[in-house]
Task: structure prediction
Amino acid sequence: MQRLGLVCLVVTALVCGCVEDKGSPFVLAGLPGPQVRDRYEAQLDVKGFPENVSFRVIAGRLPFGLVLEPDGRIHGLPTAVQRVEFTIAASAPGSGRAWTSSGSLTVTDPAGLRLLVEDLPVAAPGQPYSHPLSAVGGRPGSWSLVRARTFTAPAGEPNQAPPSVDGAPSWLSLDPESGLLSGTAPAAEQVVLLLVEAADGAATAQEVYGLRVGDAATPGWLLAKSEAYVERQIEKHVPSGLHLATEADGCFSNYGDSCCWSATSMGGLAFRAAVLGTNEAVAQVAARLQGLRTLRRITGLGIPGRAYEHRENIDGPCGHWYMQPGGNPDQHEGAGEFSGYRFWVETSRDQIAGNLWGHAIVHETLIGHPELRALAAENIVSVTQHIWDNQMKMVDLDGQTTNYGMMSGYGFDGFDPYELDVTMGNGMNAIMLIDWFQMTSQVSGDADTRQKFAARLQDLISDRPNPEPGREFEHGYLGILADNYAYAEFPPGSNYFTTMSWYNVHMAFSTYFHAVRWASDPALRQALLEAFRAVLWEDREPMESGCDKPELRRARREQNPHYSWQYLAAYGDRDPEVIFECLTQMMYWIAVPRSDYAVENPLGVQTVPPPHEDFACEPVPVHLRPQSSNYLWHREPYRHTGGNDTPGREDGGGDGFVPYWMGRYFGFVPGSI
Result:
């Protein structure tokens, strides 16, 4: 088992202007080594420090998936076998005293042999290249290249062949005995994905690596593409702090989904801020967080509306309001401090799923910004308290349940178990309430609220009747998780091709992700992970081709980085084949801006037999899919025809950077490519 060792104290005057203090030891007693698939919890020894001591990482990094709280608690779920070095600073505000110390951690796999995850050095064009791969948990005697894909351009082009060829380039070789990558790089830039296998006689292990040929001083292709989408969104798509699409005439659109996609973008920006650590990155998160706080407060309900707009929204080329309070009963004029606003209520569970997903990421990742974490917690607690106070429903200004606002694990829209003597299990609602109540029990700044929601969560998953009067039937939620209609399996008899809702898949991933990752009880975590795998991840039956039984395909096959990163981060480990294909799709992602265009199966992909020829057997390269969605990763990966040919219409672009920064944060996306 690996231990964290810290060396002698070093003065940190350059860090905080404090003076050296050698009287307090920087001790880490009995700190265990992290392992993949296992939640990690350790506490730095604070003996000898002032009571108000605060810890932070100032150089290097902790393993992917782990964070250091200011109180010295290291916790999380590791997502990669890796070896890291870092420096931790301890300071006592007001005392003028500070300490630093450096250490290392190695994340291992209790099963044995694993290849270390690392960013390969960039290969200089025309120069010799050499880099040895490494393993832990065994001594590989053989190395081999399982798969490779070489990319010759940073993005796909609409209705054009993918910019890649299968196989490693001729200049690159892998030594079968030592695991040394070597060769003389070509003059032209390229990116190579490598799926490498090593064996030690008793076991084999695989890992994915990305190698870029180019200038190491310039951003890699994926980083540059992602940052272009961030810059474009800031420039064009976030009036008053909300994420919106734009039309050819300059008007904003997609107000109905602004709550969800604003928070989804905020989650991606929070991952970005956690990786980069820059003031600019944090400021972008803060702006979205304030916008979403306004969206919640403007309704006066405790839950956010769908969108708001302000006078500044119409000062541009559009020149008119989108919302019309006189003509739409769900749109209203703001009052008081919100005078000059218009807002749209009638929120739904899909909006709240995306909203809380983004807020939870802010709380988990921005450890050094307590004010932002507190604001994220405030928004989360307000929503869950509203649902609890209204008998597991979201209630609108008119006192009625919103459309798709029934949240009970035994209710459906138009079917309220609090008014009927009949219940019917709803696995989608069940996982949402498990996730959201668990969030609240961990993030609320009020100890009484944390305790209440922890107890309410236990009542929901217990097999015993709920002790709350009038809620006796609200229990046994783990037993109904399989009744999830994400893939048109529920109710029985649903048709995959005609009733499948990819938005439901998106909602389900958004809730299982944090529900599993944040579960502190091992038994609960295992139960939720098994449901996650069975309901959403693995094909329902083994198949050689997606055309064997297309209605039984599930997310592992879909090559969707937005979903795959969430499953793998919740699982706490890697799936090299999945990562390889998801990175491929990210390389194919078109360059900014992503505007609408129509596609018509230009490459002749293999399709599902009639009458469903609009669906392919396997995922279509992402630049050859219909582009009309406001977040492309939440649409079907198999459709190869259709889309809108609307010149000038441009979506908000969150799908161009959220998977990238989520993948960087958890270690699935190499930082060098």
Q: What stands out?
A: DSSP finds 14 helices and 24 strands in the chain. Residues 221 and 355 are 30 Å apart (CA to CA). Confidence is low (pLDDT under 50) at residues 1-20. Residues 370-389 form the longest helix (20 residues).
